[in-house]
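Much of the work behind modern protein science is quiet bookkeeping, done one molecule at a time. The protein below has been through that process, and both of its lines are reproduced in full.


***
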Amino acid sequence: MSNEQLFTTYQVVYEDLKDKILDKTFQPGEKLPSFSELCELYNVSNITVRKSIELLRQNGYVHSRPRVGNFVNEIKNEVYALRYNQRTSMKHEPKDVKVLSVDSVDLEEMKQYTKVRPNRRAKCIKIARIHCFGQLPVMYELIFILHNPRLNIHSFNEERWINDGIGVINNYDINKKFYLSVDNHCKTVKDKLYLEEEDSMFRILIEYYTKQNRFAGISVSFASCDDIDFRIS
């Protein structure tokens, strides 16, 4: 067996044992199977198993007791928070917000951004906004807020719908789910932000839910990857 093959084999065994430790197949304090049992389980040589166990030990997943065996350590999961604020996370903090349009739309338009499937009869208020730093557009935002389909949007003025929509997403009693992805394909948005075809954009999706866990709507924001400063703590 070549050195390259040996390395690959013990890495595979290491990764599998590590996964079983992390998903609690092997509980903290539990003794791992013996070398001979692991050799038989993975159909590998003794030296391969020993290399895998040594790597687990070096990375803190197990500890060894002479003449007794190898035991699983307590693994403390570290939790990191990704901090994002629509204004202060921008390298060029937007000073102006321009409303481009306000419309009542069917759910189909919102479904391209989220997997949530609310009542089919519901409709959305769609607000399109552009956030600017001086004359430079730095973020394009779409807001979809559910509304009763029986309401006639044209019976209210545009400012009323904007205030209601922004009020929902800024409400402290609203629960939010945050999704981050990279979007390189939306040319119409890139044009609005004066980005080149090869430029990458972050797509930031936030879903909004009431205290009763009822879906209220979403916001989808697009910005150049070079213009957003995410902080992890």
Remarks:
- Confidence is low (pLDDT under 50) at residues 1-7.
- Helices lie at 3-22, 35-42, 46-58, 107-111, 158-169, 187-192.
